[in-house]
Amino acid sequence: MTAPATQTHNNAGDIARVLVEALPYIRRFNGKTVVIKYGGNVMSDDYLKSGFARDVVLMKLVGMNPVVVHGGGPQIASLLERIGKETKFVEGMRVTDSETMDVVEMVLGGLVNKEIVNLINTHGGNAIGLSGKDGQMIRARKLVFNMNKPELEVSEIIDIGHVGEVESIDTAVVEMLINGDFIPVIAPIGVGEDGQSYNINADLVAAKLAQVLQAEKLIMLTNTPGLLDANSNVLTGLQVAEVQRLIDNGVIHGGMLPKINAAVDAVNAGVGSVQIIDGRVEHAVLLEVFTDQGIGTLIYRDKRPAHLR
Ligand SMILES: Nc1ncnc2c1ncn2[C@@H]1O[C@H](COP(=O)(O)OP(=O)(O)OP(=O)(O)O)[C@@H](O)[C@H]1O
Ligand SMILES: [Mg+2]
């Protein structure tokens, strides 16, 4: 059945407008690196996952260099539950003993990483999965965790096991893949001086990678409409100087804490722009990269840049 002429005309007009709207963005990001943090919480829906993979492939095909860093908290939790292994959390961080680290490495470096690689490849891309151990890309050190509680006179140092932070990132392998027209997909596992594996929050890895690659953009996909204020309204933009106030009064907490801190570090280190967006929106990345319709929360340093939405 053919659509009525007027409807066809309107649709064609809409499509043309969308394509024209994308042009300046395609031009601006041509040859530029865009780091995308794909949160574990938004990987549950097959339809959304396919949309994400398509968006990444499209970015590559029009000349951008997408680099994906993924999380996987819920997937780790699910396997730990299946094998009956209990884990404790200290202020949102999983206490990771050696056995838990094995599971983390299997799930992040194996299951989740290869699933994303496969999705991108089945949608016409050329993805290669790595963990931070490959090429010793992510050097990690143990995260020293200070617990500050009002009842304690001095802060207490708590051992949370194999939880690490980024010491340095060697971009050689990623650059080689980008130059070879591959899409790198990176699991946030680092290697310590002692050769031990460390579980690192994926937001920290994505932000650090964006810094060392001097990325044009860092996009963080998560499971909220963006950064929410005290009344649960989405903040379309947030200046770095305002972040601490929101942390101090508890508006930013839990998983949003490492995310916002990582975003601030990236902005301060000269990453073009950092955007926290809702990964539950179909084709969220495509909307963010190719249209005037900015979504989620833009984190910026001084003044909201005029050329950014
Ligand atoms: N002010 C805030 N605005 C929005 N979300 C917030 C805020 N404060 C805390 N959060 C919490 O942060 C969560 C997002 O971080 P979370 O670590 O859970 O997901 P992720 O980083 O996307 O996934 P993963 O950790 O698997 O990579 C939200 O689901 C929300 O519960
Ligand atoms: Mg998180």
Furnish the topology, listing elements before pairings.
Blueprint: H1 5-29, E1 33-38, H2 46-61, E2 65-70, H3 73-82, E3 89-90, E4 93-94, H4 98-122, E5 127-131, E6 138-142, E7 145-147, E8 156-158, E9 164-169, H5 172-179, E10 183-187, E11 189-191, E12 197-199, H6 202-212, E13 217-222, E14 237-239, H7 240-248, H8 256-268, E15 273-278, H9 284-290, E16 297-300
Parallel strand pairs: 1-2, 1-13, 2-10, 5-10, 13-15, 14-16
Antiparallel strand pairs: 3-4, 6-9, 7-8, 11-12, 15-16
Helix pairs in contact: 2-4, 2-9, 3-4, 6-8
The structure holds adenosine-5'-triphosphate and magnesium ion.
Could you characterize what this model shows?
- This protein is an alpha/beta fold and 309 residues long.
- The chain has one domain (29-300): Acetylglutamate kinase-like (Carbamate kinase).
- Helices cover 40% and strands 22% of the residues.
- The chain contains 9 helices and 16 strands.
- It has helices at residues 5-29, 46-61, 73-82, 98-122, 172-179, 202-212, 240-248, 256-268, 284-290, and strands spanning 33-38, 65-70, 89-90, 93-94, 127-131, 138-142, 145-147, 156-158, 164-169, 183-187, 189-191, 197-199, 217-222, 237-239, 273-278, 297-300.
- The chain has an 8-stranded mixed β-sheet, with helices on both faces. It has a two-stranded antiparallel sheet with strand order 3-4. A two-stranded antiparallel ribbon has the order 6-9.
- A hairpin with a 5-residue loop joins strand 11 and strand 12.
- Helix 2 (46-61) packs across helix 4 (98-122), helix 2 (46-61) packs parallel to helix 9 and helix 3 (73-82) crosses helix 4.
- The longest helix has 25 residues, at 5-29.
- The two termini are 40 Å apart.
- Adenosine-5'-triphosphate (ATP) binds at residues 39-41, 71-73, 202-203, 222-224, 227-228, 251-256, 259.
